[in-house]
Fold each of these.
Amino acid sequence: MRVKKAVITAAGWGMRFLPITKSQPKEMLPLVDKPLIQYSVEEAIACGIELIIIVTAQSKRAIEDYFDRSPELERALEQKGETGLLEKVRHLCNMVDICYVRQKEQLGLGHAVLTAKRMVGDEPFILFLPDDLFEQRETVVKNMVDICQNYQGSVVAVKRVDESEVSRYGIIQPDKVSERIFKVTDLLEKPHPSEAPSNLAIMGRYVLMPEVFAMLEKTPPGRNGEIQLTDALKRLLQQHPVYAYEFEGERYDAGTPVGWLETTLALALKNPDIGPGLREYLYTLLKTSAHPFRENPSG
Ligand code: G1P
């Protein structure tokens, strides 16, 4: 059973980034040297995905344009002899087949995934929530696909979080199968810490069996009045097994302004071209501004 399709959800309002996201999709915000969504696209390609389905919405046209050809720009770069840039620009539209489907009403993550049903068809697929980035990049999803194939079930990526953070995530009730692999026996979307069945939180990568669509169709609005993928998975596990993979390494959340800034810094510091210079700049910045402020707040 090969996994050949991926779904990337990119239909949200990006409310936390308003007013920037009034006319600019959140998924097109730059992270060091490319837009946020390109990290998920590249991860999918590295996993051998042949077709990417991006779920978009109104005012997300910039995503389609970005992965499309731009004949005028290409001509201009050609005339200027900018062959390096020309190659970069052309590469974007030749990476992989991408198709788009619009979520017409923003009714939640579960509803966004359901929008891709016809394009996915009757086969397993990888779901990427592009705000979430992983230090280990595609290794996380590759391992999840292996688990899906070995155990014949859906797989979610999980990470242990502090008790104070469980209400921000889907939380699983785990039954340990082997090192880093759990069978999911229950799951709750954004529970109160007193109700959380564990501190294993779902992070934005899923390998899903197509049966999830039938469950999504039956799932009523849940937490925050939205159709929640977590609720559909809770139904799914009554008929088909769902596993969790506790991945290694960091996970970054670029979905809030502060998280975006932290992710940018973490990725930039790891980048061999700009990391060393940035480190020095940050060091000087901290020495000259933050410290004196703390020592003498009045000025
Ligand atoms: C979504 C899911 C949640 C998951 C989280 C990971 O929530 O509903 O189960 O833990 O992504 O980032 P959101 O962040 O869209 O509110």
Amino acid sequence: MIQTYNRKQLEQLKEEINQHNYRYYVLDDPSVPDAEYDRLMRQLQAIETEHPEWLTPDSPSQRIGANPLSAFSEIVHQIPMLSLDNAFSDEELLDFERRIKERLKSDAEIEYACEPKLDGIAVSLLYRDGLFVQGATRGDGYRGEDISQNLRTIPSIPLKLIGEGWPRILEVRGEVYMPKKGFEEFNRRALAADEKPFVNPRNAAAGSLRQLDPKITAKRPLEMCCYSAGLVEDGELPDRHTQVLQQLHQWGFRVNDQMSVVRGIDACINYYRQLGNKRDQLHYEIDGIVFKVNSLPLQQALGFVSRAPRWAIAYKFPAQEEMTRLLDVEFQVGRTGAITPVARLQPVFVGGVTVSNATLHNMDEIERLDVRVGDTVIVRRAGDVIPQVVSVVLAQRPDDAEVISFPSRCPVCDSEILRNIGEAVARCTGGLYCSAQRKQAIKHFASRKAMDIEGLGDKLVDALVDEGLVETVADIFNLRSEQLSKLERMGDKSADNLLKALEKSKKTSLNRFIYALGIREVGEATALNLANHFGSLEKVQTASEESLLSVPDIGPIVAKHINTFFQQPHNLDIIAQLRTAGVHWPENEPRPVAELPLQGKTFVLTGTLERMTRDQAKAELQALGAKVSGSVSAKTDYLVAGTNAGSKLSKAKSLELEIIDEEEFIRCLSEWRA
Ligand code: IVH
């Protein structure tokens, strides 16, 4: 049946789509399934095809991308888009407040708005009678480029304001950025298609907005978050900055979810520290915190100096990317023989620490970067992630820069290096003959989540292997006090402590022991599944590949690794030696996994737990069969929220998930265990 529509129904449909759009892209709180949204959109497109005379620029169908331009035209900002002064230390922030108080000739406590400084591209959006009419880049602050066509494609930018009461002319300013996930996904696809990836999300956002063909921009995962109003005519806004943003939010704009109002500069410093700790968990990149005097009349009174306001400052985080020189490349051998090229760098302060080594991952990466010894490179260190070389500054390449060649023999044991077809990783074939692999295997065995041998750190393992005191993990339990105390920097007391720690570690659990063996691709979770499923080491050892496949999360590759491991006589020999030395664990009745009380349930842990660490909570949950995930989604069954829980908690609330606090969690744990 062909349905006919009138103009009013079309407007209602547009309104409905706008609402869904707002819920999805601005509030992160979808109101309908994707399929329903798509259906409404197709309906809209059908009506507009039928009635082209009804098509308006604010229609949600107009985000898909207009025809390409040959160049961007210039626009003049009626109110200049200025920049911000930076602070790099607490002292500079204190100076900022001192200057404000001097200027205001008042010592009264000042209220500040605190906002993350988004690392993207500043834009200006102009609305006339509630309709988006023009969007521009900041340019030099006075003149920018008209990128309206590209901005239209960004779903979090309203084409038509929601609600009512907006000024006839309203300019909204903010930042367009590419969220971290979208950036990674985009780069993954670019690499797969042999295209050049972007160096960082900021460049990705800039590159996407600079496209003359808006259809390209439309495919990029961009978001826009607003941070102020600009030109306002025929209408009024509240007189506090944060209230202005709340108002803009109600009219359809995204505002930052971490925004906070505080009193006094000490509270600003506090906010800076707290957000610094959370920086890696945010879904977008930030490079500092912006503090703004919240009262607009006070902002007016303070005014501007040269190109920046006196009432705001950006307190920058330590840069996560810096330039330095690549001095050399060394090839390290991992536990499974994987050869990793490591860049030796001219030490550089980046991401808050001095970095002198960075990973180059593998040979493909070296070729992709086209990096050579002697090059100036950009090094990135974000949070606790291993520092990486992200790109080469080709313009600074010296004439004698040296091409890097991958070794054909292991730099430690001289065994042949092989690379399986289809794998990026090349491996030393020396196995336990290779002292590098032996050292790594012992370090893994002793590590906290494995046998947890306190005091047996990396340096000591290196020394024990180099001195010939230890060859395999079984040998560490035969160490004697007089052998240990002869080692450099090891007195009688530390030798004694180590022996005690070794003794203590002998009492372990089956899952820890399996994990400690260091079987390829068998991490903590898989080890636990194996222990739960089979209940005894003998059964795991003798399991066929087929029966291994019935263990959750084990596929053919992992099954093969496990099977191969237990077929090697020297591995069985080491296990026997360990047991003779006294390593033991309680034998469980095998618990078919489906019987575990939390089988199939997904948990997310957030905030600070007071009575246990997150690792402990995670291990407890996994032992009960639950999956522990890092992010909240509709698939989450429970959110365990400790103190100071942030965005995960808000998301869980908006999805109406089951939320439990620590006390309740502990109570439930004992019930589930029973
Ligand atoms: S306010 C007059 N707030 O930082 C003050 N800027 O260095 C105008 N930025 O060009 C800027 N997040 O692109 C402001 N929450 C925020 C921001 C922010 C990022 C960028 C913006 C601006 C640059 C200034």
